[in-house]
Amino acid sequence: MAAGHEGSDTPQQIQCDVRRDVAVPPARGAHLQASQSGCSVAGGLRQPESNQRTVRPITISIKSRIAIDGSIRDVWAYICDVGRWPEWAPTVLECWVRGGGPLEPGSWVEQRARDLGRTHPRSEQVTAVEAPRSVAFAGTMGTSAARWGMELEPAGERQTDTMMWIEVDLAGIMRAAPGLFRGSIQRVSNREMAAIKAAVEADTRRGAES
């Protein structure tokens, strides 16, 4: 997903769209899937024939990219250090891998998060890892199933093109204003990318000085 924007200092919005998929009658589906890992996000309760309605999923998708002055392994190490996620993710207060160990498909990332004025636990499952180039997760955003990931590409000897992508299957009140939520998610993603860039480059400078 990454493409070259060498020398860019601010996150670049790459794609921002709303997708309304083909209608799926509820009677045919047992449940919606949050990701390839098979996390169930909604039960498939069958309604009486007279009450069945066609559900049209609405998925928003955004991508944000930034060039970071640091090697791909430096950026990868920072992103995979979940204990440092609170440095760049504004809603994460504390973060750890369940049971310890590295990020790998099937492992769970646990968080103590704060949003909408409340503190609560939150979990995300790792769905794919291709070190040191990409990692993906599945979880929730509010009441909506969500997926997100990071993709890295070397851009020269000491620079890394870094991409964050996010997909959200809108549910509940979020379906009423997809454009509003899409714009909000894009702005947060851009700020997160800028924070990741600042942290990695600060670490790189400290390493060069020591």
Notes on the structure:
The chain has 210 residues and is of the alpha+beta class. It has one domain: START domain (Alpha-D-Glucose-1,6-Bisphosphate, Chain A, domain 4, 2-Layer Sandwich), CATH 3.30.530.20. Helices cover 20% and strands 40% of the residues. It contains 2 helices and 10 strands; from the N terminus they run ββββαββββββα. The strands form 2 sheets. The protein has an 8-stranded antiparallel β-sheet, with helices on one face. The longest helix has 32 residues. The radius of gyration is 19 Å and the shape is globular. The protein starts with 11 loop residues before the first strand and ends with a helix.
- Shape by Cα distribution: globular
Which structural category do the helix and sheet elements fall into?
A: alpha+beta
Nearest-angstrom radius of gyration? 19 Å
Q: What's the CATH superfamily, by name?
A: START domain
The first-to-last residue Cα distance is 35 Å
For the sheet with most strands, the description reads: 8 strands, antiparallel
Spans where pLDDT lies below 50 across 5 or more residues: 1-8, 20-48
CATH architecture: 2-Layer Sandwich
Count, helices: 2
How many domains? The number is 1
Indicate the mean pLDDT: 81
Give a brief rundown of this model.
By secondary structure, this protein is of the alpha+beta class. It has helices spanning 72-80, 178-209, and strands at 12-20, 31-33, 40-43, 58-68, 92-97, 108-115, 118-130, 134-141, 144-154, 160-169.
